[in-house]
Amino acid sequence: MQINYTLNTNELDSDFLESIKLLFKNKDITISIADVDNEKEDFAFAKAIEEGLSSQSVSIDELNQALYAD
What we know:
By secondary structure, the protein is mainly alpha-helical. It contains 3 helices and no strands.
């Protein structure tokens, strides 16, 4: 089972933890935490790369140079 929660850190409390423990009773789980604002920026960046490659306005070499420039 996989569940994604989006919430503010002010909403984290013992009730939230207890609900997780109840849902996944006696199971090993993985918890990932990401800043929602950064996820949106990463998605926009990936989308721009995808559009640039699909329109062939940027070559893969030019993309690699831009991504790995000092």
